[in-house]
Design brief:
Layout: H1 2-7, H2 9-22, H3 25-85, H4 89-103, E1 108-114, E2 117-122, E3 125-129, E4 134-139, E5 141-146, E6 154-158, H5 184-195, H6 199-211, H7 216-219
Antiparallel strand pairs: 1-2, 2-5, 3-4, 5-6
Helix pairs in contact: 3-5, 5-6
Length: 229
């Protein structure tokens, strides 16, 4: 028992403090300087380990974006070739029809074009964590669909609130500050839909993603958003 008492962390900490206080002032200063130098070296060493990991992660994101761009170009080229073979009238008619249909979708307040982006404005959306049935208020969104395939296929921007969740200023539990999402499979599906000009299902899917995120790691932060009354 005496040995266990001696090894108690609190007792060891008190003993260390008492020993430190017995040191001369010059020795205390040297001890603090050595300690600070050790901490700086640890930080530098950890930093040297983190930087390569960050570089590798950035490279993987670049590769992911490059693969999506290749997929988009392939599908879009096939779609355009098919449309030209049919005279192009069918594709133009489809786009006109979809433009009106998008504005009639549930939760859609309006749609507009800005450069190569289709911007869809929604009403206040409610998210649900399926595992717990926890419902939370996300807010209104502007969802940007990149029709040229040169960027993220879709970005979600919360117009009501940004929340510090897994990362600062997130748009939703699974949507980061820059509007990109954490679901790679969803991005691939959206790339295919947008490349084929299937805009109505792309809009529906993008809204559904906000309402029911499927990411257990990130959806645990849903309680950072206001709970549905």
């Amino acid at each position: 028992m005496r040995l266990l008492s001696y090894l108690n962390p609190k007792r060891v900490g008190r003993l260390a403090i008492l020993q430190f206080r017995k040191l001369p002032i010059v020795a205390r200063a040297k001890f603090k300087a050595d300690r600070q130098r050790y901490v700086r070296q640890c930080i530098q060493r950890r930093g040297s380990e983190v930087i390569p990991a960050q570089t590798q992660l950035s490279a993987s994101r670049v590769n992911e974006g490059s693969c999506r761009a290749d997929l988009f170009r392939s599908i879009r080229s096939e779609k355009i070739w098919s449309a030209k073979s049919a005279g192009g009238a069918e594709l133009r008619q489809s786009l006109q029809s979809q433009w009106h249909e998008i504005k009639k979708l549930d939760h859609v307040l309006g749609a507009s074009m800005s450069g190569n982006n289709l911007l869809v404005r929604t009403d206040s959306l409610v998210g649900v964590v399926s595992r717990t049935n926890f419902k939370y208020v996300l807010g209104e969104f502007v969802i940007a669909f990149n029709l040229a395939g040169s960027d993220e296929p879709v970005r979600w921007f919360n117009q009501t609130r940004r929340v510090d969740a897994a990362l600062p200023r997130m748009n939703a539990p699974t949507v980061f500050e820059d509007g990109s999402c954490a679901a790679c499979e969803l991005k691939e599906t959206l790339v295919e839909l947008i490349a084929q000009f299937e805009l109505v299902p792309a809009v529906e899917l993008a809204i559904q993603y906000l309402q029911g995120p499927d990411n257990q790691l990130l959806e645990c932060f849903a309680n950072r958003w206001p709970k549905v009354a």
